[in-house]
Amino acid sequence: MSEIPIIIRFKDVSKSYGETLVFEHVNVDISKGEFITLIGKSGCGKTTFLKLVNALILADEGEVNVFGNNIKEVNHINLRRKIGYVIQGVGLFPHMTVRKNIGYVPSLFRHPPSNIYPMNKLLDMVSLDEELLDRYPRELSGGQRQRVGIARALITMPSIMLMDEPFGAVDEITRKQLQESIARIHKELGITILFVTHSVEEAFLLGTRVAIFDNHNIVQIDEPKAIIEKPANDFVKELIGKVGVLEI
Ligand SMILES: Nc1ncnc2c1ncn2[C@@H]1O[C@H](COP(=O)(O)OP(=O)(O)O)[C@@H](O)[C@H]1O
Ligand SMILES: [Mg+2]
Q1: In the chain, which stretches have pLDDT less than 50?
Q2: Given the CA of residue 213, which atom of ligand 1 is nearest to it?
Q3: Which amino acid residue places its CA nearest to atom 4 of ligand 1?
Q4: Can you say whether the dihedral through the CA atoms of 42, 83, 97, 167 is positive or negative?
Q5: What is the pLDDT of residue 242?
Protein backbone atom coordinates (compact mmCIF):
# COMPACT_ATOMS: atom_id res chain seq x y z
CA MET A 1 0.00 0.00 0.00
CA SER A 2 1.38 3.40 -0.91
CA GLU A 3 1.68 6.12 1.72
CA ILE A 4 -0.73 9.02 1.53
CA PRO A 5 1.44 12.11 1.02
CA ILE A 6 1.61 14.87 3.59
CA ILE A 7 0.19 18.05 2.08
CA ILE A 8 0.60 20.44 5.03
CA ARG A 9 3.30 20.26 7.67
CA PHE A 10 3.91 22.66 10.58
CA LYS A 11 7.36 22.25 12.06
CA ASP A 12 7.85 24.03 15.39
CA VAL A 13 5.79 27.00 14.28
CA SER A 14 5.52 30.03 16.54
CA LYS A 15 3.58 33.19 15.81
CA SER A 16 2.83 36.37 17.75
CA TYR A 17 1.18 39.64 16.83
CA GLY A 18 3.32 42.12 18.71
CA GLU A 19 2.83 41.19 22.36
CA THR A 20 0.04 38.72 21.64
CA LEU A 21 1.37 35.18 21.51
CA VAL A 22 -0.84 32.99 19.32
CA PHE A 23 1.21 29.85 18.64
CA GLU A 24 4.18 28.34 20.36
CA HIS A 25 6.02 25.39 18.76
CA VAL A 26 3.13 23.91 16.81
CA ASN A 27 3.88 20.62 15.09
CA VAL A 28 1.32 18.94 12.89
CA ASP A 29 1.11 16.88 9.70
CA ILE A 30 -1.97 16.86 7.51
CA SER A 31 -2.30 14.26 4.79
CA LYS A 32 -3.76 14.70 1.35
CA GLY A 33 -7.52 14.22 1.33
CA GLU A 34 -8.15 14.80 5.03
CA PHE A 35 -11.09 16.86 6.27
CA ILE A 36 -9.70 18.59 9.34
CA THR A 37 -12.11 20.53 11.51
CA LEU A 38 -10.63 23.20 13.79
CA ILE A 39 -12.25 24.13 17.08
CA GLY A 40 -11.27 26.15 20.11
CA LYS A 41 -12.22 29.28 21.98
CA SER A 42 -12.56 32.60 20.21
CA GLY A 43 -9.14 34.15 19.78
CA CYS A 44 -7.22 30.86 20.09
CA GLY A 45 -5.73 31.22 16.61
CA LYS A 46 -7.93 29.28 14.21
CA THR A 47 -8.02 32.02 11.59
CA THR A 48 -4.30 32.60 12.07
CA PHE A 49 -3.68 28.90 11.45
CA LEU A 50 -5.51 29.06 8.10
CA LYS A 51 -3.60 32.19 7.11
CA LEU A 52 -0.31 30.50 7.93
CA VAL A 53 -1.21 27.82 5.38
CA ASN A 54 -1.79 30.20 2.47
CA ALA A 55 1.01 32.57 3.48
CA LEU A 56 -1.23 35.52 4.27
CA ILE A 57 0.74 35.38 7.52
CA LEU A 58 4.27 34.07 7.90
CA ALA A 59 5.56 32.20 10.93
CA ASP A 60 7.97 34.01 13.24
CA GLU A 61 9.79 30.77 13.92
CA GLY A 62 9.64 27.29 12.49
CA GLU A 63 8.49 26.22 9.08
CA VAL A 64 5.20 25.77 7.26
CA ASN A 65 5.41 23.28 4.44
CA VAL A 66 2.67 23.08 1.85
CA PHE A 67 2.80 20.74 -1.14
CA GLY A 68 6.24 19.71 0.08
CA ASN A 69 7.76 23.18 -0.01
CA ASN A 70 8.65 25.69 2.65
CA ILE A 71 6.13 28.44 1.88
CA LYS A 72 8.73 31.10 2.57
CA GLU A 73 10.48 29.86 -0.55
CA VAL A 74 7.61 29.74 -3.03
CA ASN A 75 5.62 32.27 -5.02
CA HIS A 76 2.62 33.13 -2.85
CA ILE A 77 0.31 33.95 -5.73
CA ASN A 78 0.91 30.55 -7.29
CA LEU A 79 0.50 28.93 -3.90
CA ARG A 80 -2.88 30.61 -3.31
CA ARG A 81 -4.09 29.54 -6.72
CA LYS A 82 -4.00 25.99 -5.39
CA ILE A 83 -5.62 26.88 -2.09
CA GLY A 84 -9.27 27.95 -1.99
CA TYR A 85 -10.21 30.26 0.86
CA VAL A 86 -13.70 30.86 2.21
CA ILE A 87 -13.12 33.77 4.57
CA GLN A 88 -14.91 34.33 7.85
CA GLY A 89 -18.20 36.14 7.18
CA VAL A 90 -18.35 34.97 3.52
CA GLY A 91 -17.11 38.31 2.22
CA LEU A 92 -18.92 38.48 -1.10
CA PHE A 93 -18.53 41.74 -2.97
CA PRO A 94 -21.92 43.48 -2.59
CA HIS A 95 -21.62 45.46 -5.82
CA MET A 96 -20.83 42.38 -7.95
CA THR A 97 -23.25 39.84 -9.31
CA VAL A 98 -23.01 36.20 -8.33
CA ARG A 99 -21.27 35.48 -11.65
CA LYS A 100 -18.67 38.20 -11.03
CA ASN A 101 -18.16 37.11 -7.45
CA ILE A 102 -17.53 33.50 -8.43
CA GLY A 103 -15.22 34.49 -11.28
CA TYR A 104 -13.36 37.07 -9.25
CA VAL A 105 -10.11 35.24 -8.52
CA PRO A 106 -9.38 34.15 -12.12
CA SER A 107 -10.15 37.71 -13.26
CA LEU A 108 -7.23 38.96 -11.16
CA PHE A 109 -4.66 37.22 -13.30
CA ARG A 110 -3.29 38.89 -16.38
CA HIS A 111 -3.26 35.42 -17.91
CA PRO A 112 -6.30 33.75 -16.43
CA PRO A 113 -5.48 30.21 -15.36
CA SER A 114 -6.59 27.66 -17.93
CA ASN A 115 -7.48 25.08 -15.36
CA ILE A 116 -10.64 26.51 -13.89
CA TYR A 117 -14.02 24.87 -13.49
CA PRO A 118 -16.68 25.98 -15.95
CA MET A 119 -19.52 27.93 -14.31
CA ASN A 120 -22.16 25.24 -14.85
CA LYS A 121 -19.97 22.61 -13.21
CA LEU A 122 -19.41 24.89 -10.20
CA LEU A 123 -23.09 25.69 -9.83
CA ASP A 124 -23.79 21.99 -9.97
CA MET A 125 -21.20 21.21 -7.29
CA VAL A 126 -22.62 23.75 -4.85
CA SER A 127 -26.26 23.16 -5.87
CA LEU A 128 -27.03 26.68 -7.03
CA ASP A 129 -29.49 27.49 -9.77
CA GLU A 130 -28.20 29.17 -12.91
CA GLU A 131 -30.89 31.84 -12.68
CA LEU A 132 -29.11 33.27 -9.63
CA LEU A 133 -26.01 34.25 -11.63
CA ASP A 134 -27.13 37.78 -12.39
CA ARG A 135 -28.35 38.56 -8.89
CA TYR A 136 -26.48 40.54 -6.27
CA PRO A 137 -25.56 39.06 -2.87
CA ARG A 138 -28.32 41.03 -1.12
CA GLU A 139 -30.84 39.22 -3.32
CA LEU A 140 -29.79 35.79 -2.01
CA SER A 141 -30.65 33.81 1.08
CA GLY A 142 -27.96 33.25 3.70
CA GLY A 143 -27.43 29.67 2.53
CA GLN A 144 -27.15 30.73 -1.11
CA ARG A 145 -24.53 33.31 -0.19
CA GLN A 146 -22.48 30.65 1.55
CA ARG A 147 -22.73 28.47 -1.55
CA VAL A 148 -21.49 31.34 -3.72
CA GLY A 149 -18.54 31.73 -1.33
CA ILE A 150 -17.71 28.05 -1.74
CA ALA A 151 -18.02 28.20 -5.54
CA ARG A 152 -15.72 31.21 -5.60
CA ALA A 153 -13.12 29.32 -3.60
CA LEU A 154 -13.41 26.20 -5.77
CA ILE A 155 -13.12 27.83 -9.19
CA THR A 156 -9.35 27.46 -9.53
CA MET A 157 -9.55 23.71 -8.82
CA PRO A 158 -7.68 23.97 -5.52
CA SER A 159 -6.14 20.94 -3.84
CA ILE A 160 -6.71 22.54 -0.44
CA MET A 161 -9.76 24.43 0.82
CA LEU A 162 -9.54 26.69 3.85
CA MET A 163 -12.98 27.40 5.27
CA ASP A 164 -13.34 29.85 8.14
CA GLU A 165 -16.65 29.37 9.95
CA PRO A 166 -18.39 29.08 6.60
CA PHE A 167 -21.80 28.11 7.95
CA GLY A 168 -22.02 30.73 10.65
CA ALA A 169 -25.14 32.78 10.16
CA VAL A 170 -27.70 30.32 8.83
CA ASP A 171 -30.62 28.42 10.31
CA GLU A 172 -30.31 24.79 11.32
CA ILE A 173 -31.95 23.26 8.25
CA THR A 174 -29.80 25.32 5.90
CA ARG A 175 -26.73 24.37 7.91
CA LYS A 176 -27.57 20.67 7.53
CA GLN A 177 -27.88 21.10 3.77
CA LEU A 178 -24.60 22.98 3.56
CA GLN A 179 -22.89 20.28 5.62
CA GLU A 180 -24.16 17.63 3.22
CA SER A 181 -22.90 19.65 0.28
CA ILE A 182 -19.39 20.13 1.62
CA ALA A 183 -19.12 16.47 2.65
CA ARG A 184 -20.11 15.48 -0.89
CA ILE A 185 -17.68 17.96 -2.49
CA HIS A 186 -14.89 16.65 -0.28
CA LYS A 187 -15.64 13.09 -1.30
CA GLU A 188 -16.09 13.78 -5.01
CA LEU A 189 -13.01 15.99 -5.45
CA GLY A 190 -10.74 14.26 -2.95
CA ILE A 191 -9.47 17.65 -1.80
CA THR A 192 -7.97 18.46 1.58
CA ILE A 193 -10.22 20.66 3.71
CA LEU A 194 -9.40 22.74 6.80
CA PHE A 195 -12.69 23.83 8.27
CA VAL A 196 -13.07 26.18 11.25
CA THR A 197 -16.29 25.98 13.20
CA HIS A 198 -17.49 27.05 16.61
CA SER A 199 -19.94 24.17 16.62
CA VAL A 200 -18.42 21.16 18.33
CA GLU A 201 -21.15 18.99 16.85
CA GLU A 202 -20.35 20.18 13.35
CA ALA A 203 -16.64 19.54 13.93
CA PHE A 204 -17.25 15.97 15.02
CA LEU A 205 -19.77 15.33 12.29
CA LEU A 206 -17.66 16.54 9.35
CA GLY A 207 -14.04 15.99 10.35
CA THR A 208 -12.04 12.93 9.44
CA ARG A 209 -9.87 14.38 12.20
CA VAL A 210 -10.72 17.13 14.66
CA ALA A 211 -8.03 19.59 15.74
CA ILE A 212 -8.62 21.16 19.14
CA PHE A 213 -6.79 24.44 19.79
CA ASP A 214 -5.93 25.75 23.23
CA ASN A 215 -3.05 27.24 25.10
CA HIS A 216 -1.12 28.42 21.99
CA ASN A 217 -1.11 25.00 20.43
CA ILE A 218 -3.14 22.09 19.10
CA VAL A 219 -3.90 20.11 22.24
CA GLN A 220 -5.34 17.14 20.39
CA ILE A 221 -5.82 16.13 16.76
CA ASP A 222 -7.42 12.80 16.07
CA GLU A 223 -10.41 10.98 14.66
CA PRO A 224 -13.67 11.98 16.34
CA LYS A 225 -14.13 8.55 17.89
CA ALA A 226 -10.58 8.50 19.28
CA ILE A 227 -11.03 11.92 20.90
CA ILE A 228 -14.27 10.89 22.53
CA GLU A 229 -12.73 7.66 23.79
CA LYS A 230 -9.56 9.31 25.00
CA PRO A 231 -9.67 13.08 25.48
CA ALA A 232 -6.17 14.48 25.92
CA ASN A 233 -6.98 16.74 28.88
CA ASP A 234 -9.75 18.37 30.90
CA PHE A 235 -10.27 21.12 28.36
CA VAL A 236 -11.02 18.55 25.66
CA LYS A 237 -13.16 16.53 28.04
CA GLU A 238 -15.31 19.54 28.81
CA LEU A 239 -15.57 20.48 25.16
CA ILE A 240 -16.75 17.08 24.02
CA GLY A 241 -19.24 16.85 26.83
CA LYS A 242 -21.33 18.69 24.30
CA VAL A 243 -21.20 15.96 21.66
CA GLY A 244 -21.96 13.13 24.03
CA VAL A 245 -25.37 12.68 22.47
CA LEU A 246 -24.02 12.28 18.94
CA GLU A 247 -23.75 8.85 17.44
CA ILE A 248 -20.38 8.71 15.80
N1 LIG B 1 -3.70 41.34 12.64
C2 LIG B 1 -3.68 41.16 13.97
N3 LIG B 1 -3.02 42.02 14.77
C4 LIG B 1 -2.98 41.85 16.11
N5 LIG B 1 -3.57 40.83 16.75
C6 LIG B 1 -4.26 39.94 16.01
C7 LIG B 1 -4.35 40.06 14.59
N8 LIG B 1 -5.09 39.04 14.12
C9 LIG B 1 -5.43 38.32 15.20
N10 LIG B 1 -4.95 38.84 16.33
C11 LIG B 1 -5.08 38.29 17.70
O12 LIG B 1 -4.51 36.98 17.68
C13 LIG B 1 -5.30 36.07 18.39
C14 LIG B 1 -5.78 34.94 17.47
O15 LIG B 1 -6.70 35.47 16.53
P16 LIG B 1 -7.47 34.59 15.49
O17 LIG B 1 -6.51 33.74 14.75
O18 LIG B 1 -8.31 35.50 14.68
O19 LIG B 1 -8.37 33.67 16.45
P20 LIG B 1 -9.70 32.83 16.16
O21 LIG B 1 -9.90 32.77 14.69
O22 LIG B 1 -9.47 31.50 16.79
O23 LIG B 1 -10.83 33.56 16.86
C24 LIG B 1 -6.42 36.88 19.02
O25 LIG B 1 -6.01 37.26 20.31
C26 LIG B 1 -6.52 38.09 18.13
O27 LIG B 1 -7.01 39.19 18.83
MG1 LIG C 1 -11.47 33.42 13.47
Answers
A1: 248
A2: 22
A3: 17
A4: negative
A5: 66
Pocket test for ligand 1, best of 48, 49, 164 (most atoms within 8 A of CB): 48
State whether the beta carbon of 166 lies less than 6 angstroms from ligand 1. Answer: no
Alpha carbon distance 75, 68 (integer Å): 14
Q: What is the sign, positive or negative, of the torsion defined by CA atoms of 169, 170, 176, 182? A: negative
pLDDT of residue 246: 54
pTM score above 0.85? yes
CA of 22 to the centre of ligand 1 (A): 7
What pLDDT score does 163 carry? Answer: 96
Helix, strand or coil, per DSSP, at residue 99: helix
Cβ of residue 198 lying under 6 Å from some atom of ligand 1: no
* pLDDT recorded at residue 13: 98
Set out the domains of the chain in order of their start, with CATH numbers: 6-95+158-242 (3.40.50.300)
